[in-house]
Amino acid sequence: MKKKALLIISIIAVCLLAASCNKDRTCRCSVRNSSVVRIIEIDGGTCEDLRVFRYHDDLDTLHVDSLLCTDHTFLIDSIYKTEE
To answer: How many CB atoms lie within 10 A of CB 57?
Structure first.
């Protein structure tokens, strides 16, 4: 009886862990030395893994910026609701 209970608890724990790892996240990222905050949606991993932002401008020049990202909500989020 104890083995069955332990097995069921283990299966539930693994399922919860797997479900939490695949959760979509809303990351708030800032380019170093800038006050602009970018909202980036990711479908796996953590926001802290986002380190580089690459983009092309109107002249098709590639820019690479270093990012600082977090998944913590900001006070401004209470004013501007994002769909999640």
So the answer is: 8
